[in-house]
Design brief:
The protein is 25% helix and 24% strand. The chain contains 6 helices and 9 strands. The chain has a 7-stranded antiparallel beta sheet with strand order 4-3-5-6-9-8-7. The chain has a two-stranded antiparallel ribbon with strand order 1-2.
Length: 216
């Protein structure tokens, strides 16, 4: 599926699988862009972004999408037949932070939820969800939620920017993002502790929670 989510609009094609990646902390050098483009003849990375589109069942990014978050990019999303994978990555600042993050691993309804791995001092967060397309359509994209987030980089892609904002909160020790996902997909048999001072009024968390879909 080709996804375009920008200020000018949002379109979707459910016939394939697509990926969108964004480098938040630093742009890619030419050598790094060459390495990324070597993964697919259709990939044309800029200094910050790249997308991959696969129209044939069974074809995917060589080595998987996680390797790109390990080495080059900081946030990503992928959609395949209405099932979404969101990715967030960053370097861990301490052992305590790693231990805190791992407490938020969970799988719930239809195996949706959050997987967190720490590899060579870098957190790779995989989020499996369903999203409501209507909230991603251009008329419903509320860019004002990012006004006071002090983001290091803001993409033209609304979902990538939302993930960038969530990433910054997680890096700063605010884990309300994970609890918002658990409230939609979690099951009581596997409870997730509510973070201290959980703030549902936060515009980033509130916006993300509003686009989560649970049609089951």
């Amino acid at each position: 599926m080709k996804i375009i989510s920008v200020r000018k609009g949002f379109t979707a094609d459910h016939s394939s699988t697509s990926y969108e990646f964004l480098a938040v902390d630093k742009p890619l050098e030419q050598e790094e862009r060459d390495a990324v483009s070597s993964l697919s003849s259709r990939a044309h990375p800029s200094r910050r972004r790249v997308d991959f589109i696969y129209n044939v069942e069974g074809y995917d990014i060589p080595g998987g999408w996680r390797s790109l978050l390990e080495d080059y990019y900081d946030v990503m999303y992928s959609e395949s037949y209405d099932w979404w994978t969101l990715g967030i990555a960053f370097d861990i600042s301490s052992k305590e932070q790693a231990e805190e993050l791992l407490e938020y691993n969970f799988r719930g309804i239809e195996d949706l939820g959050v997987d967190i791995e720490i590899e060579d001092g870098r957190a790779i967060i995989s989020i499996y969800v369903r999203l409501d397309y209507s909230y991603l359509a251009e008329p419903n994209q509320d860019w004002s939620v990012f006004a006071n987030q002090d983001l290091d980089y803001e993409s033209e892609d609304y979902l990538l920017t939302l993930l960038t904002a969530a990433r910054k909160q997680i890096m700063n020790g605010n884990y309300d993002f994970f609890y918002a996902i658990w409230e939609v997909y979690g099951v009581e048999d596997y409870p997730l502790d509510k973070p201290d001072d959980c703030d549902k009024s936060d515009p980033v968390i509130n916006t993300f929670a509003s686009i989560l879909d649970c049609p089951f």
